[in-house]
Design goal:
This protein is α+β, with helices and mostly antiparallel strands. Helices cover 31% and strands 27% of the residues. Bound molecules: uridine-diphosphate-2(N-acetylglucosaminyl) butyric acid.
Length: 421
């Protein structure tokens, strides 16, 4: 099993360039199935979730090739398959987008339930509610979701989500772009990747308005045509490098970011005594003194992202004083990494939805296990900050979502090696 071996203590210095956003890419690539013609998609991150997704699309009959690293040309004109490969679908969460896409393009779909990081119960009832509202007949078995057109066929509809679900908002948007009439999604998610997906679809000829607000309107069109689109930079990858500099110390220019997307992270790090300077498409992070404790509650965008909870917890573990970290999106997310951080000497007490973190001067190296993507990223940061050697196991989780993490950290001066037995 591959693992990372990290010798902690080196401050991080230099520049790092952020890749295209994972959670935008895993929506936009399946959305290309809705397009009759060639889509040229730039800034596609080279991560395992994307590689699996591309394999699924290729098996379904899409023609794809990389013009150069990160620039994918995908032509879905000849796709007719409505039952994607079950084994591959079960390997990632975002395969749930194939439901909306196939429903939108063909009116029916037979898709296995998604896999991916299982740090919490992750139901898809809101996706299903949306498909019903659009007129689909939905059959759920233990393994599959089967979608067929209902008696009245597919039609635009008004859907009010019970919670602002990222996946449900994107899935319903994709199912609705080619569906006759107007669809309105109320209480929609506002995450940057929702806006990115809408911008991609609009570039290809869709009529979506309001993405980024809590009401998204989709006016169905007859067809989408090909075009070129560049995926936004990854907010969470950028935040992870920012948290790493905060925890380890140093001075790093994080390039290819949208500073607006980073505001909630930037302001928290500033509260923790990190110096953050914003430029048009870059952010400089400088951390020279001990961090200050803080209080954070995760929330949907524009709040502090749940996907940065674990990385910030490492910073809190090293801060002066007692921090409180409350999770409001996935209650069980602490369990994926807090015990591992405790093995490294962190003082964390979990009380329901809140972790109370008493900062220590130092963490110590240990052998730890990544149980999900962001938990794994946090353990890498902890290893970089710790005294001595840390071994992070189960790194396939980390490589789902971080492009060239070892190379990027090494270029910043970190002592990290990938070891494969
Ligand atoms: N929820 C339901 N029913 C639904 C959908 C969601 O109860 O039908 C609940 C969830 O259980 C959760 C909350 O609503 O408590 C939010 O879930 P959401 O649907 O927004 O999350 P998701 O689509 O499953 C995406 C990202 C996650 C990220 C969350 C929250 C992708 C592929 N995944 O998941 O990313 O944590 O939004 O921002 O976009 C990651 O990148 O590490 C990651 C886990």
């Amino acid at each position: 099993m591959a693992r990372y071996e990290i010798n902690g203590g080196n401050p991080l210095r230099g520049e790092v360039t952020i890749s295209g956003a994972k959670n935008a890419a895993v929506a936009i690539l399946p959305a290309a199935l809705l397009v009759a013609g060639e889509c040229r998609i730039e800034n596609v991150p080279d991560i395992s979730d994307v590689r699996i997704l591309l394999q699924i699309l290729e098996n379904m009959g899409a023609r794809l090739h990389f013009e150069e690293p990160g620039v994918l040309v995908i032509d879905s004109t000849n796709v007719s398959c409505t039952q994607p490969d079950t084994e591959l679908v079960c390997k990632l969460r975002a395969s749930y987008y194939l439901m909306g896409v196939l429903l939108g393009r063909f009116g029916h779909a037979h898709v296995a339930l998604p896999g991916g990081c299982n740090f919490a119960s992750r139901p898809i009832d809101q996706h299903i509610k949306g498909f019903w509202a659009l007129g689909a007949e939905v059959t759920e078995t233990e393994e599959y979701v089967i979608l067929e057109p209902g008696m009245g066929g597919l039609h635009g509809s008004r859907i009010s989500l019970d919670m602002a679900s990222v996946g449900a908002t994107a899935n319903i948007m994709m199912a609705a772009v080619l569906t006759e009439g107007q669809t309105v999604i109320e209480n929609a998610a506002k995450e940057p990747h929702i806006v990115d997906l809408a911008n991609f679809l609009n570039t290809m000829g869709a009529r979506i308005s309001g993405a980024g607000t809590d009401t998204v309107k989709i006016r169905g069109v007859k067809e989408l045509r090909g075009g070129t689109y560049a995926i936004i930079p990854d907010q969470i990858e950028a935040g992870t490098y920012m948290a790493a500099v905060a925890a380890v110390g140093g001075n790093v220019l994080v390039r290819n970011v949208i500073p607006k997307h980073m505001e909630c992270i930037t302001s928290k790090l500033r509260e923790m005594a990190v110096r953050v300077t914003e430029y048009d498409d870059a952010i400089r992070i400088q951390a020279y003194s001990r961090l200050r404790s803080t209080t954070v509650k995760t929330r949907p965008y524009p709040g502090f992202p749940t996907d940065m909870q674990a990385q910030l917890c490492v910073c809190m573990s090293l801060a002066n004083g007692v921090s409180r970290l409350t999770e409001s999106v996935y209650e069980t997310r602490f369990f994926g990494y807090c015990s591992e951080l405790q093995n490294m000497g962190a003082d964390i007490l979990i009380n329901g939805k809140t972790a109370i973190v008493t900062g220590r001067q130092k963490l110590k190296g240990a052998t730890v296990c990544a149980y999900d993507l962001r938990a794994g990223a946090a353990l890498v940061i902890a290893g970089l900050a710790a005294e001595g050697q840390t071994v992070v196991e189960n790194i396939h989780f980390i490589e789902r979502g971080y492009e060239n993490i070892v190379e990027k950290l090494t270029a910043l001066g970190a002592n990290i090696r990938r070891i494969e037995d």
